[in-house]
């Protein structure tokens, strides 16, 4: 890909430039730019994007940073309280810790399972079968639907006390329970839902697998390497940049999970806060309990935690990610 | 159900972007300005309810507009779920509705925050409240000012699946029943149904309809008068939780998974799914589900039998209609309130959909057209309000709940569940409950 780009650039410059040519051309370009009115108009075209960036991202972020130091109930003006929100969060809010616990468990269990499944399926789909496109689409489908409220509602029905999953277990003579409303299992139904949506990392893995050099595998086959050896000695090491990319993205995604937890628990985060994922708690504090200042503080802590995890990922990647060059 | 964007959709639109998305949900409300302000000159009115209530409101409002063609009304309605979240967001974004259906449990909170418009000055002029009792108007009165017109009488009552009860050969308990009677008949239900049906849904975490009545029997209130503390003692709550632990052990009440599933979801209520015959949740009447073909009946919350019992029941105001302070159309909103309170067609359209009508005149108007279940419902409410009126030892009706009340109710529910799931002992949870409650009310 990089070589293709250089080719294009070379085409635009017809002759090899001598230093004096170069100077002459620069002067021309500056003169042209001036005649066009100082080059402000490209910015006019970019204005909608700038307005979006500052109006919808930068300004709200700074505003929320300010609000995180206030007591703000949405209805009356915000009152400056300094670090109170942050203090309360860490010292005097058991539900905060419940939500941290649920979220970490969710991230730590769902991300590796999801990636392992994605890689496994990607390997299965990385061959020239008849109708392979159809299979790929079929496996990707859950991810298209995944974020939808409808799927979360389906999930609630499937794992409820009289749901499909228990009907399925009944075939084997196992008496199920209400998985969604038991505090020991509720979070795992959410994790299962997350793992089921392995389509996006799978597609990325598939693209990575396609790029692996065939000759290395041929050489290994001649040397008598078993498929397992080939996987661990060739595929996985060559794929580490892709794995890294997926790990970073999926961790960020998992930290932000909201919709399934909200829908499956009816917005309660229950039973016993077992599905109180962090984003859901943040939402509840802001919009239900009218503590928008506190919710803003929660949002900033989440932001910092995600940034921290991502930084750690990048630092650790030096030790296990292998790039070609 | 309604026409409005739910909070789910609102959040889905903000959850797309990687890290910014994490903040999105919190930010979208603070930045404001992007919401659809009420630019039109229509009067906006919002309410929550069932489909039946939506239809009734629309019909009554159409009748109103026939007589007041100058006032154009834009109607927005939804289920209760998310209703106040959206209202909060609208207020913060400067696009508050002009007129809204308000919850008696929340009116004080919004009135004190300056969201609602006081309407005393209209009473006797454009607002006709003839026939409203003083105790009823108290439901809309905060710090001496009227902030909402009650739609009717609300009482705490149990909904009973009478068909199911009769099928098991059991008789509907007498209205003068006790907590011990409740236990007895619930156990009978379990036995006679061959262990298929528990008697009553778990009330250990149920607040308004249940524990509050019990606390009042002991001369205690749920919240202190100033709203800064709880009004009941740990001993009372302990006794209460022990009663329900006993109920679960005796199979008089269903196991916690069933109780937990019904949280915020009436369609999973133990009576609706056929796992119990008695429910403290007054919302299930009309919520549909598997009981629609059963004949329902109603009973007051049990009382007495435990030492020191006095009349614990009380009467409150159903739902309210309130105007917002930011609105420029308070006068028009008041006209609509008055219409709902007094107009014959509106009263007939509404029937019992907003509670038992507030005035004698209104009750007589609808009496002939009621369904059998509605009739039973009204009879029971009449009975309770008369009993409360006659009681000499009853506490005055509770003060409007303070800010954070809904968090306390949720805490009570979760605490009972923690005990039921065996995650906490009653004693241990008791300490946590009072700790956290004082944190919520104090800060």
UniProtKB/TrEMBL annotation, chain A:
PROSITE patterns: ABC_TM1 (PS50928)
InterPro entries according to UniProt: ABC_transporter_permease (IPR051393), MetI-like (IPR000515), MetI-like_sf (IPR035906)
Annotated GO CC locations: plasma membrane
Subcellular compartments: Cell membrane
Segments of skewed composition (Basic and acidic residues): 1-11
Top-level taxon in the UniProt lineage: Bacteria
SUPFAM superfamilies reported for this sequence: MalF N-terminal region-like, MetI-like
Keyword flag Transport: yes
ABC transmembrane type-1 domain mapped to chain residues: 100-313
Topology relative to the membrane: Multi-pass membrane protein
Family from the record: Belongs to the binding-protein-dependent transport system permease family.
Protein name: Sugar ABC transporter permease
UniProtKB/TrEMBL annotation, chain B:
SUPFAM superfamilies: Periplasmic binding protein-like II
Top-level taxon in the UniProt lineage: Bacteria
Keywords: Signal
One Pfam family from the record: SBP_bac_8
Signal peptide coordinates: 1-31
Protein's UniProt name: Extracellular solute-binding protein
Species in which this protein is naturally found: Streptomyces liliifuscus
């Amino acid at each position: 890909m990089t070589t293709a780009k250089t080719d294009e650039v070379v085409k635009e410059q017809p002759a090899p430039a001598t230093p004096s040519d170069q100077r002459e051309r620069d002067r021309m370009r500056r003169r042209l730019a001036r005649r066009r009115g100082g080059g402000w108009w490209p910015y006019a075209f970019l204005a909608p994007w700038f307005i979006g960036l500052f109006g919808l991202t930068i300004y709200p972020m700074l505003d929320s940073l300010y609000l995180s130091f206030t007591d703000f109930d949405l209805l009356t003006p915000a009152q400056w309280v300094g670090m109170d929100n942050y203090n309360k969060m860490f010292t005097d809010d058991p539900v905060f810790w419940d939500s941290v616990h649920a979220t970490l468990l969710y991230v730590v269990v769902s991300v590796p399972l999801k990636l392992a499944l994605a890689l496994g399926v990607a390997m299965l789909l990385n061959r020239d079968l008849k109708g392979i496109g159809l299979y790929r689409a079929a496996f990707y489908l859950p991810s298209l639907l995944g974020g939808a409220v409808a799927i979360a509602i389906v999930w609630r029905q499937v794992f409820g006390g009289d749901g499909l999953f228990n009907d399925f277990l009944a075939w084997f003579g196992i008496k199920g329970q209400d998985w969604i409303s038991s505090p020991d299992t509720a979070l795992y139904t959410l994790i299962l839902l997350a793992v089921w949506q392995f389509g996006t990392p799978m597609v990325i893995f598939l693209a990575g697998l396609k790029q692996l050099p065939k000759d290395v595998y041929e050489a290994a086959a001649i040397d008598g390497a078993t498929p397992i050896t080939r996987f661990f000695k060739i595929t996985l090491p060559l794929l580490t940049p892709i794995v890294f990319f997926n790990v970073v993205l999926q961790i960020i995604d998992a930290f932000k999970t909201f919709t399934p937890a909200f829908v499956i628990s009816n917005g309660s985060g229950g039973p016993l806060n077992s599905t109180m994922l962090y984003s859901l708690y943040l939402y509840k504090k802001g919009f239900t309990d009218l503590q928008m200042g506190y919710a803003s503080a929660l949002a900033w802590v989440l932001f910092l935690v995600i940034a921290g995890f991502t930084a750690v990922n990048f630092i650790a990647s030096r030790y296990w990610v292998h790039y070609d060059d | 159900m309604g026409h409005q964007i739910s909070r789910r959709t609102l959040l889905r639109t903000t959850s797309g972007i990687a890290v910014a998305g994490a903040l999105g949900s919190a930010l979208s409300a603070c930045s404001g300005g992007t919401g659809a302000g009420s630019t039109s000159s229509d009067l906006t009115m919002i309410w929550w309810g069932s489909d039946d209530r939506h239809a009734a409101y629309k019909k009554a409002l159409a009748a109103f507009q026939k007589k007041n063609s100058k006032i154009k009304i834009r109607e927005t309605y939804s289920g209760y779920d998310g209703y106040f979240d959206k209202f909060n967001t609208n207020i913060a974004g400067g696009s508050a509705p002009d007129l809204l259906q308000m919850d008696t449990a929340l009116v004080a909170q919004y009135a004190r925050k300056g969201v609602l418009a006081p309407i005393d000055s209209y009473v006797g002029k454009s607002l006709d409240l003839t026939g409203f009792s003083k105790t009823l108007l108290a439901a809309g009165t905060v710090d001496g000012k009227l902030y909402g017109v009650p739609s009717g009488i609300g009482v705490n009552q149990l909904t009973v699946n009478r068909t199911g009860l009769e099928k098991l050969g059991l008789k509907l308990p007498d209205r003068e029943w006790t907590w011990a009677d409740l236990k007895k008949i619930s156990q009978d239900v379990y036995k006679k149904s061959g262990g298929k049906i528990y008697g009553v849904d778990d009330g250990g975490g149920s607040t308004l309809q249940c524990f509050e009545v019990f606390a009042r029997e002991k001369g205690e209130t749920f919240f202190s008068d100033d709203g800064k503390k709880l009004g009941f003692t740990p001993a009372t709550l302990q006794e209460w939780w022990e009663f329900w632990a006993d109920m679960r052990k005796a199979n008089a009440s269903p196991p916690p998974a069933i109780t937990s599933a019904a949280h915020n979801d009436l369609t999973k209520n133990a009576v609706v799914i056929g796992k119990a015959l008695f429910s403290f949740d007054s919302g299930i009447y009309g919520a549909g589900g598997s009981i629609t073909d059963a004949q329902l009946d109603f009973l007051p919350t049990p009382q007495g039998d435990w030492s020191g019992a006095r009349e614990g029941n009380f009467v409150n105001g159903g739902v309210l209609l309130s105007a917002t302070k930011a609105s420029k159309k308070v006068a028009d909103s008041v006209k609509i309130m008055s219409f709902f309170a007094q107009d014959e067609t509106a009263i007939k359209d509404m029937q019992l959909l907003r509670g038992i009508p507030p005035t004698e005149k209104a009750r007589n108007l609808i009496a002939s057209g009621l369904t059998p279940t509605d009739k039973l419902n009204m009879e029971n409410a009449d009975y309770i309000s008369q009993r409360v009126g006659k009681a000499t030892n009853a506490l005055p009706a509770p003060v409007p709940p303070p800010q954070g009340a809904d968090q306390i109710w949720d805490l009570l529910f979760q605490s009972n569940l923690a005990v039921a799931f065996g995650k906490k002992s009653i004693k241990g949870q008791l300490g946590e409950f009072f700790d956290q409650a004082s944190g919520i009310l104090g800060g």
